[in-house]
Hints:
By secondary structure, chain A is mainly β. In chain A, about 0% of the residues lie in helices and about 55% in strands. Chain A is globular, with a radius of gyration of 13 Å. Classes of the chains: A mainly beta, B mainly beta.
Amino acid sequence: QKEVEQDPGPLSVPEGAIVSLNCTYSNSAFQYFMWYRQYSRKGPELLMYTYSSGNKEDGRFTAQVDKSSKYISLFIRDSQPSDSATYLCAITDSSYKLIFGSGTRLLVRP
Amino acid sequence: EPEVTQTPSHQVTQMGQEVILRCVPISNHLYFYWYRQILGQKVEFLVSFYNNEISEKSEIFDDQFSVERPDGSNFTLKIRSTKLEDSAMYFCASRKRVSTDTQYFGPGTRLTVL
């Protein structure tokens, strides 16, 4: 079983839609959860970071963690064409090395 | 806003040659990392570095790879004898402190081995 699983997409939505991106993980020792955004041939850019179950909101972005189900989500409200990118979930334990999902490619159509 | 920088942005080399990829982490960060991403694949951890020594390395990070912090600002990844399969984007990342901070990535160096 892979440590982190993420649907690769692509996911195509109209501008203004609510986007839901998801990852599952296998190891309950994971305790820190991140979402990065990556544009083509660029470095991952940190969007959200959390280490507890529940929701964390930052502007149009909401990160949700359910440790009992080993499931993390990122919601994007009022999606914009500039949100078109690949979204990577990343998880770590006390070693702090990041384990990434394969990334979900998102396209927001004007 | 401080950021991680990497040079060069693109490096082309012949198989068997040595390459050095350079990174300048964020100035008050203490933990440094290298990751790589082969085209179309996921970002993979290579090595972590703290207090002038390797903290952890992956199976990918074999004897062909080495890391160094030669001065107070640079962090380098050396590949001694490049192989075709080393072609990838290489990302440097840095982190400030132990508990609740996370890693900030540089823009990457695209390594092409011919």
